Amino acid sequence: MKLLFSLLLILLFLPSCQKNSSSEGKQYVVFLGLPNKDVTLYKVTKNNKDKKIYYPLMRLTTNTKILLPMGNYLLANECTSYEFFNDGTHEQKVVLSKLSLNFGKNNQNQVINKIGNTFNSLCYDPLDKQEHWFINKSEFDILPGKNILSVSGRDVELNLHPTLFSDKKIQLWPLTLSSPINTDSSKFFSLPLDLTSTEKKFVISSPVNSTVWLQSGRYQIEVNGSKQIVNIKDSSSSEIKLGVIRIVSPKNFPIEKRLQAGGQPIFAFINEKVLFRLNTDYPVFPGKYRVTLEGSEIEKYVTVIEDQVSEVKTRGALVLSPPCDNNYDKCRHMTRITIHINRMPFILMTELTDMPFLVFDQKYEYGIEGIKGIFKILGTSEDSVKIDKLGKVKIKWETRYTTGNIKTDFVRFESKGVNVFGKSIDLMYFKPDEIYLPEGEFLLTYFVGDQNLVLPKTRIDVILAGGTTKEFVIPVYTQKTSDGQQSEKNKNNTTYTTNTTLSPIKD
Description:
Keywords: Signal. The protein has about 500 residues and is mainly β.
């Protein structure tokens, strides 16, 4: 009987002994917080270089407890983390807290459900340090300890007690940018300004005609390259009214012909660095802007007024090179023209002939490559292109020998017409033999000088129609060499004479 009773006692106490043996060195961790919130539990160890290694164990749900062996552990979600040591003797309590975004005053539900409102947040993954962006997320689960969450570009530093629940509120205030024209492709960007060098400066974007919610502070707001600084204050509602820039090309501008001639699509810049497409609406802040055509110094200033569309009109032009003769192998098929304003020598734009181009609705002149100094008023069209035709002058440089010191000094073209003005720089002898000029009236002038500096001047009237060619002989006088001596340049020239056919006109 005593033996039976002893066996009964052993069987009775055996489960209790086994239980105590299995739980030795372990203790419960109680995870508390709002219901149905999950985090990941990691075991923390170190490698031989004393670097921490995190082994994921399980997903842990709030309001549960788990028995863990003694050691270091980490709780983490996508934004925050909390590392703790389980000593195996005392039960630990960890509370998951909450961070909420508040919008204005007493209108949180209406704001969150309203379309066209943006509030952005950013955090870093505690383990791999990757960025996590959140758009229109108004609540975050926050673990205890030191963590950082950026809201509207400004850091919110958190240091919560592990056993106390916190419901932290971040107040946001509205900034609305309204435009008279709603363009889906246009966005505005806000960049916090009054931050320390260690704080993250990230940009928040939102469509025009919507509201972005920001913490109080100074921000730089940018819309299509235009910028403005705003100061968001507590208990305030800010609204900025935009204007619109529209750069308009002529309705029937032959862009296909330009592309076929080897040209590129035409774009414009505002303030020298922001690229705009033509015939497109761009909301910008009210103010004065410098508009230029791409690849040129062609410019126009426009003042943009809030709630209004400011059009910048362009006009089309086309300068045609003269046709080439089939039997003339040295003909240039294309040349470059240079665009000027107020008859100034500096070049605003360079374009090829036979290629349509745009300028603003202002007065310009154009010159021709290789014949500097001659300008003609540029004709433009509001509907398509205004066509201007170049003419061609062929020059035959004829060497003539004299026994004296008479020589040809220089040759130039001088304009006579109303729309053509200026005079060319002196032409080099034997170069060029073909010159393009604008349609108009000119004087072909050349001078013959002697050692007494008497300058007889010969002028020839040149009436040049667009697309036509005129030929002229220009004598080049030089001192006659001794018998049997000729320059290599003139050996092939058989038109030598010592007689002059000029009719000098002395000034």
